[in-house]
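Form 7-S
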Amino acid sequence: MASRSYGACVLCRKAAVVKMLCRGTSAAANPQSQVDFLKGEQHKKHPGVTNLKTLRLPEELQTAARSIIHRAQVPRLTDRSQSLTNYLWSRKRAVEDLTLRRKAVSLERELWEKAMEKKGDVDEQALEDRIRRKVLSELKRTTYHWTPMKFDEELGVVYMAARLAGGYAAVRRAMNEIKKRDPSFAPQSLLDFGSGLGTVVWASHSCWGDTLKEMVCVDSSGPMNILAERLLKGDDEIAEPHIKHVYFRQFLPVSPKVQFDLAVAAFTLSELPNGTEREEAVLTLWRKTSSYLVLVENGTKEGHQILMEARDTLLKKQEKTVHDTRPASVFAPCAHELVCPKLAHEPITPCNFQQLYQPLPLPGHNVQQTEKFSYLIVTRTEPGKAETEDVSWARLIAPVLRRTRHVHCRMCCPDGQLQHLVVTARKHSRDVYRCARSSDWGDQLPIVQKVDDDSQSDSK
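Output:
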């Protein structure tokens, strides 16, 4: 019995040595070893993790919002806030004039051709009038009727109940991308274009409250500026604002030389009436950006496409007068600066992400909700100092599916392609596998991209 026991122990020790050697060989063979990308962090907190746990509004903001809503006594608030949420989510861009004219010409030609096929004398003037009326009627029936949002105090309160917590969650999650990947960034000035209720101020203060010294909020709506200021003062006119050095304006600062460390437009570009105005707004914001420009929209096809328009404008549009020659580069979420592969496949699906949050404690609100949003962060690149650290990291664009000894990851890769990768410890190293299991939708994954037997192109 003793000899058998001794022999078993020897075999166990040999097996353990072989296992350790195999692990060492796997880590050495894989270029993305722990030394390269973990930076001393645990796998569940690796550098690519930018997701946040369930977000709550700052206590001072939540208390002020509840006070304002209670004092306003808006009738049918729950129903109206839900209707407004649905309306904003389903909203589309206004149809461009050129698109509308082309559609009208095509429809008019089609109707003339049908009319000419009929035999007999035709009163051309009467026919022309009839066709014109029919074209106008058809355009009215099939064209999306975009109208600008006009806020009074009551609608502002409804918007607060509907969107304050969700909007804060989306902006806070987008800003966490900068805070996590660029910990040395310490902004002193902020520009919020289309500031609304001031959620950007609160979100940025939660990230960089120690360094921010000037925050300029620009919104054309006077009632919304008043509500935002009431929120800052805790719904007490004579109180000091909880966040100081916040200034409200109805127009952007005129001077093109005035820049801000951080410029933000959250759910704002979709409120502009046409592509020309959106382009002008994006270029103006970029001129006023010294470090990072953050754009956030609803996680719909429309929201994503608006952001991709802005991306193209910043990367490709050449301005006549340039005050800051540092070029634009995409910081997040894109892993590349090529055409968005989500727009290149049919059917088109938006590139969006999600953030859990606690809504305002009002009647009819669930305990926990999910904000689905799209975002774009663009930064100024110093000549010869382009970011290289994360170029081989892919962005997870769908929930991670964790299975026994393997993980399904759908990613947007640095080569501009969508990829479905099945990550295993044997194929990709133990470190990469454990990082994949700890990652989720929206995080970056440290994998050298190459299609092998475990991966396949994702055309969805």
